[in-house]
Amino acid sequence: MKQNFPKLGIKLLCRQFGKTRHAYYDHQWRVQDLGLKDEIVLQHVLDIRKKQNRIGTLKLHYMLQEPLGQHGIKIGRDYLFDLMREHSLYIRNRKRKVFTTNSRHWMHKYNNLIKELVINHPEQVWVSDITYIQLRKQWGYLSLITDAYSKKIMGWAFRKDLSAQGCTDALEMAVADRKYPETKLIHHSDRGSQYCSKAYVDLLIRNRIAISMTENGDPYENAIAERVNGILKAEFDLYGPQTGLKETTRKIRENIQTYNQIRPHASCDYLTPEQAHHKQGELKKRWKPKKYKQEQSATCITESGIIDLRV
């Protein structure tokens, strides 16, 4: 009689609420399956986050489709957002600002050549920028050359100073890595003294690369370069005090390799930059402007504007 009591208790409870005992057990099975499903999803999320520990949830949703499909699991975007919040895996942006360029100098400044330009193939336009990374007791400065079409980082250099040498080293790496050396190429940057220096300009001229610069100091004129800086620092956890120069340089090298070869880019039809660099013609953009109401106004956040890790 004692062994049957739980079953009898469940039967009476189900009858009280107008449900069958089978419905009760079916619900328990679904809850158990759901818990297992969540566990599998979270395990794959953590596997991805080992290499890209600040990648946004929308890109995670895209990258999870194939591995979860092997388990016969399909999840929606909202489901993943809720699961990430529930397990404190949701990423929040951190905004910081340090000025890394000085445009108030005597050297010659060039016009903006890409203002109305339609970019439809790799190595048509390169964009350059410098961002800061904190070392153990000082700042380091990362110079980047990015292809505007494929978003591939073509060249980079990391130094303890803001001299033109870091920018020159990054440009030399980019030139050496060109896949289409006969293509007419424009180099676009801000008006920083590093990019106006004789050594840098001479290197561009020797390699028959046209020179373009922002005109009004507006960061949106060099939005792609700013965006790539934000991705590297936010998604690859380059904020906060790091180790010494050598160890941080190693980490940057690994992160750039992951960015170029593994991370899908929403502006390039979810291709990796390396894959997109072998394409021609317009690439479908997989992001949409996000609108947020703030009192009586609305703010749009886009891929080329304010950084939103969800896109």
UniProtKB/TrEMBL annotation:
Integrase catalytic domain residues: 118-281
Q: What's an example of a GO molecular-function annotation for this chain?
A: nucleic acid binding
Which parts of the chain are coiled coil? none
Q: Which GO terms describe its biological process?
A: DNA integration
Q: Which PROSITE patterns match?
A: INTEGRASE (PS50994)
Domain of life from the UniProt record: Bacteria
Instruction: Fetch the PANTHER family from UniProt.
Output: INTEGRASE PROTEIN, TRANSPOSASE INSF FOR INSERTION SEQUENCE IS3B-RELATED
Q: What is this protein called?
A: Transposase InsO family protein
